[in-house]
Every structure is written in structure tokens, then in C-alpha cells.
From TrEMBL:
Residues of the AAA+ ATPase domain: 37-152
Keyword annotations of the record: ATP-binding, Nucleotide-binding
Pfam families: AAA (PF00004), AAA_assoc_2 (PF16193), MgsA_C (PF12002)
Protein name per the record: Replication-associated recombination protein A
Gene3D superfamilies given in the database record: 1.10.8.60, 1.20.272.10, DNA polymerase III clamp loader subunits, C-terminal domain (1.10.3710.10), P-loop containing nucleotide triphosphate hydrolases (3.40.50.300)
UniProt key word Cell division: no
GO biological process, one term: DNA synthesis involved in DNA repair
GO molecular function, one term: ATP binding
Lineage: superkingdom: Bacteria
Entry similarity comment: Belongs to the AAA ATPase family. RarA/MGS1/WRNIP1 subfamily.
Amino acid sequence: MQPLADRLRPQSLDEVCGQRHLLGENCVFRRAIEAGTVPNMIFYGPPGVGKTTVARLIAKTSGMSLHMLNGTSAGTSDIKQVLSSVGTFGAHNGVLLYLDEIQYLNKKQQQSLLECLEDGTVTLIASTTENPSFYIYSALVSRCSVFEFKPLSPQDVAEGIRRAVRRIDETEKTGLEMTPEAVECLAVQCAGDMRRALIALEFAAAGAPTESGKRRITAEVIAQTAFGARYDKSDDMHYDCISALQKSIRGSDPDAAVYYLARILSGGDLLSACRRLLVIAAEDIGLAYPQAIVVTKACVDSALQLGLPEARLPLAQAAVLLATAPKSNSAYSAINAAMEDIAKGKAGAIPRCLQNQHFDGEDAKVKGQNYLYPHDYPHHWVKQQYLPDDIKDCVYYHYGDNKTEQAAKAYWQAVKKDN
């Protein structure tokens, strides 16, 4: 039986839920499509947000012969077969090739499309859930306009669900009704993916109890078809969640921190969560609270020994600790500045007093290492050059404005004031 998502696919741009930044009445994208202008395009966005639907509608509006391939199964021979239809009677209005999941085609397969795109014999609409800049051959991207399809809002999904319920109620012998609470619950649960919402709706409709001759979907029925938010360790959502976790902690928001941590752990990605929390402790908290990395390491070790689901407990402790801790990126900035100088070639000779060398050649102007041992001096410090001559006055580390680093700054200012 044809899936509900395919049976209820929108038949016009007005029926497409969401993507108002592309399909709104005064948007350039929509006006160009309705005018019959179809350039080579790449649709980029998460699953279930209308990429395939919009491509079908564009083909229908343009009158071109539509060929659909999927990058997960298509080979070079499939692409050549599409290209062979160019100029035939069935393709007198042109050929539109829709390539779903194009990121799965290898470089050679993607290159095979370049010539026909260059001469305009084939119009390409490709879709991908991954960032085109990273996963699609650059020469192909340069020949296409890239449009981002965004996750649907709960309001967009709710509109699609209500439309689907009306269609089912009108066309099937056993009608269907759905409570407003159930619509809202499903719209939130599907995390912006209309396809997932319709799959869940179809399942819920099949198992819903019949009341007064109609199947009735309630919030309790939807709760039994629950599923988590989309998360894949290998796609952009993974990197978005990791980025959101770090930025939430850097912004001192513990609520957002534990939310994104939960998203990552719900996807079973324990290792990424552990690694990122350790990075955050060093990069964003740093010397403002030096013990943060020690505590985080202990939490990470505990999490790795416990495994999921218990691992969530020490990692949540670490996330909240880091989010509420004072922040400093002074060490992070210092090492970056030093590495930038090294990359520029600022790597002069190490001062003689620091070298691990105890013999001077006959031509040496200064004999002996002349290293001053700081522990032999008051406060365990003595003035001495440590950086190479070319950069001896460079300053990479700047004390942060937190209590811990300011205390260290005051201490060393007092020690060095007489030198």
C-alpha cells in the first residue's frame, strides 16, 4: 500500500507547509518558478521538509520530462540513461533530473553531470541533508543555486496533520477524527519532519479505537507512538547539537546546556558528549576556574565506566557546572596567538640559557649556558629571557578579568615590581 506521505503529497505550492522564505507570495524563488524559470538548483535541508515535493511541483509547472534518481542506489549507468533521453520526443520541453541524496554519489558520478549542465541540455535539481560545501563536488555546486529548506515549525506541521486527517476522513470508509491536543502533541514530537508526522499519524490511525463509527486519535494514542528527535552521528544535526551545547555553556545557560546534552545522548552518542565537555572546560572556563577540567574529567570517566543510560547523570553534572562557572578563554587565545606566529615563521633560535646543551664551540661569543635557576631566588623568580630574540617582547597571554586570574596577576606584579 502506498504510504500516507505519498498519497497526501501537496499538488500545488500553496499546499506545501512551511518554507515561506522560499514559497511566500512575494518571494523571488516562487515568482521565478511560476514564470517557468528553472535554473540548476540544490535543495539543502533536513528530511521531511518538502524538498522532493517542491521539485515535483517545479517539474509539473515547467512541463519538462521528470526523471528521479536516488544517490543511495543510482549508478553512472542510470545517469547515462537519463542523459540519453535528451532530444527525444518525450523530452521535447527539456529534461529535469531530480537527484535525491546526491551526497552519496561519488566524485566521478557527480562529474558526469557537468557537461550537460554547462550546455543546458539537462536541468538538475539535487537535494541533500548535508552541507553542499562539504559533501558535493565544488564544480557542481558552482553551477547551481543553493536553497536552504528549514525544519518545519510545530504550527506548520499541525496544519499538515489537520489537512491529512480531513483527507482520510473524506476518502476512507471508517472516518477519522483527531483531538486538538493530539495534533499539538504530534506536531511537537516530529521535530519539524512532516514525513515522520504522517508516518506516525498513519500508525496511530490504524490502532485508534472506534467511537460512534469513527476512529478517534487522542493524545494518549499519540503518546504510544512516541519517538525521539532526529539525531544522526554522521550528519549536520550532530554538528549542530554539539555546537549548540558548547555555545549554550559558553553563554552560561544551564537549561539549554542540559537540553542539547540530552539530544546528543538520546542519539546514543556518548563519546562526542564526553569529548566536547572536556574541550569546553579548557576553552571556555579555563583559568577562571582551573578545577573545572578536573571535575569534568572525573565526570567523563564515570560516564564511560557507567555507559548509557546512567552516564547521563555525571555528564549532566559536568554540563551544569561548566554552564554556571566563571568563564575565561585567556589560555585558548594565548595558544592560538602563539601558533599563529609559528605559522608565520616566527621560530627563532632558542636562547642559549634554555638549550639542552652543555658544550660551546670555539666560535661561541658567550661561553657557558648561563641559566639562572629560579628556585635559587626570592619568590622562586628571576628576570631572564625565555622567548627567541626575534619575538622576545611578544605577549600572548593576557590575564582574564575573573577573580582567579586577577589574583595571579596581582601576585606576579608584586613579585616583579623591583625588576
